[in-house]
Amino acid sequence: MALASLAASLPIAASASASAAAAARFRFRIGFRGMASASAVGAAAGAPARVGVVQMTSVGDVDANYATCSRLTKEAAASGVKFLCFPEVFSFIGSKDGESVKLAEPLDGPIMQRYCSLAKESGMWLSLGGFQEKGPDDSRQYNTHVLIDDSGKVRSSYRKIHLFDVDVPGNMVYKESCFTTAGDTIVAVDSPFGRLGLTVCYDLRFPELYQILRFKHQAQVLLVPSAFTKVTGEAHWEILLRARAIETQCYVIAAAQAGKHNEKRESYGDSIIIDPWGTVVARLPDRLSTGFAVADLDLSKVEAVRTRMPIAEHRKFDSDWKSSTKQ
User: Fold this and answer.
1) Active-site position among 69, 85, 201, 250
2) Pairing of strands 272-274, 49-56
3) For residues 144-165, average pLDDT
4) Is the distance from CB of 201 to CB of 160 less than 8 angstroms?
5) What is the dihedral of CA 279, 284, 286, 290, to 10 degrees?
6) CA dist., res. 143 & res. 155, Å (int)
7) Can you tell me the mean pLDDT for 237-265?
8) Of 74, 146, 224, 295, whose CB neighbour count within 10 A is largest?
């Protein structure tokens, strides 16, 4: 079937060379959480579920950020949203080095407990990307994506694997590893909204993570809470997100920080939801405004795309592929 005909037939909404040994070491280091059975994944493919993606400008004030998150959650609940996704560093963005580490707490600490209560009161699942979780010592934190269910329970958490150590052209030097310890566990979890794959921001540039979530752990929805810089966002944000959706045939929900947080830091914004055909189905009209956009996730569309273009059956390369490189 021609690609144009295939696209027309799909019920989609409009709106090297590392060695085999190195690959084996990576597989050994990375653990896996939340393996789904085929029946569990299939059971999630029911009626469409309304989800929301938040856009906000966090600042160096935990209470002010919570007030914004609480307001948006209540507004989303009134709009029928059952799953609301917040961006990276939703609860705090400091202006001085070391502020976030001093603020970092365990997941059962008072900051996260406020959000657990918010989820329970609103009867809504929350994706909270990039929480400053207390690290292995007083000088380190984890950048943790926390998933809370509608009873207020922390259902799962993912510690960001790929840390942002980058000299952004025309911008500034970022060195996340100076104060953050990288995670070592890939996380996928079942939910009423499908099989969720949890990631954070800079992970977006590493497609192998999303390939594992899709082909090894049956993810149907990929969550990418972020705080992309203005420079990198203008160049790559939407392109990378649509690519991840297309190559995995998953929905992608990407909540973004937007605008100036302080004199030193500015984020690109543009929170969006993308369907498994790569079409943007929801976004805020203003890339820098605070608010949320809504879409109805229909997992039958995931199955339709995967049935008509069965790349899971056609893919050839994995970690066991033989290399022609001679040692």
Assistant:
1) 201
2) unpaired
3) 97
4) yes
5) -150
6) 17
7) 96
8) 224
Cα dist. 15→227, 257, 285, 286, 304 in Å? Answer: 24, 22, 12, 16, 18
Q: How is residue 99 written in tokens?
A: 């502020």
321-324 contacts at long range (C-beta below 8 A, 24 or more positions apart) = 322/20, 323/17, 323/19, 323/20
Active-site entry in 88, 230, 250, 266: 88
Both tokens assigned to 168: 């952004």
pLDDT per position as a tens digit, 165-203: 888 776 677 889 999 999 999 999 999 999 999 999 999
Catalytic annotation present for 75: no
**Is-catalytic flag, 121?**
no
N-to-C CA span, the chain: 42
C-alpha span between 279 and 292 (Å, rounded): 18
216-243 per-position pLDDT tens digit: 999 999 999 999 999 999 999 999 999 9
Q: Are 214 and 249 in contact (CB under 8 A)?
A: yes
Does residue 17 surpass a pLDDT of 90? no
**Neighbour count for residue 217 (Cβ, 10 Å):** 20
pTM summary value = 0.86
Q: What is the CA radius of gyration of the chain?
A: 19
* Catalytic residue flag (residue 160): yes
Choose, from 69, 82, 85, 160, the residue flagged as catalytic: 160
Return the higher-pLDDT residue of 35 and 275.
Answer: 275
